[in-house]
Amino acid sequence: MKNMLVVTSGIVAMILSTATIAGPREDLLAQYAAAAKASGFSAARGQALHTQSFSGGKPDTPSCTTCHGKDTRGAGRALTGKTIEPVAVSVAPTRYTDPAKVEKWFKRNCTEVLGRECTPQEKGDWLTFVIGQ
Amino acid sequence: MRIPYRPLAIGLVTLAFSALVLARAQAGDRHFFAPVTDPVVKEECGSCHLAFAPSMLPARSWQRMMGELDKHFGDNASLDPATAEKITSYLVANAGDAGGQRYSSKLLKGVASGATPQRITELPKWVSEHRKVPDWEWRHKEVRTKANCIACHTAAEQGYYEE
Fold first, then answer.
1. Burial class of residue B163, CB neighbours in 10 A (0-12, 13-18, 19+)
2. A80 and B CB contact within 8 Å
3. Do B145 and A81 touch (CB under 8 A)?
4. Which of B31, B44, B121, B136 is the most buried (most CB within 10 A)?
């Protein structure tokens, strides 16, 4: 049993590491970097965006954490009570691999929270934050 | 390196649970509203709330809702036109008045023939089915809103609405 686990985790690690070489997440980050003309993204800025309370959006959704929760590795909850899968890539490895889905939700959620769309810099920072979580 | 034990465990529990529900289905059930099976509809209409059973509203209600997604109960749920069209056809084909739906006519009873209700939770029949639910229950923090069917109907995702 123990051996099996070691082997399985070895395989998982292999799959994960190939995914980080050139996956859709990295392509997305490269796109945001090009659009932002950014020198780099910061997980710390991403975290600040994630936890900050804004007043420009809807009053009942001041922050990303309103729905996604304070713990990035824990499940979130939409206002309708529906459970949302964690945002941290370490516990939700399939996240942010469909660029159209990522863009759709950035657009919806940034408008809800900030009252405007997020900039490519903000998107890149936020993604960098959750990829490292 | 983290090994995703927990998702696995949750997966197994879910599996066991579905098997249970399935067994009940086979035993025959009157409170069944066929759940959404189309993966696109599930994804696009099931991320903010339960993907509501199409048989709970008439076709004309779904058509109106799909034409106003940018003003969806205070949310902007807009989709690209091709996806929206695909979802509309699915909802309309499986709507409560689409024919061949055995149980939905019950929920649509009392809806005027030209009316396009947008909320399941405002259908006369839904309201009367829930009139005995006490006030405190609606305000319970696990419920939050009447639209959170799954808080009380734990098998809503599988199409079952018992107490």
1. exposed
2. yes
3. yes
4. B44
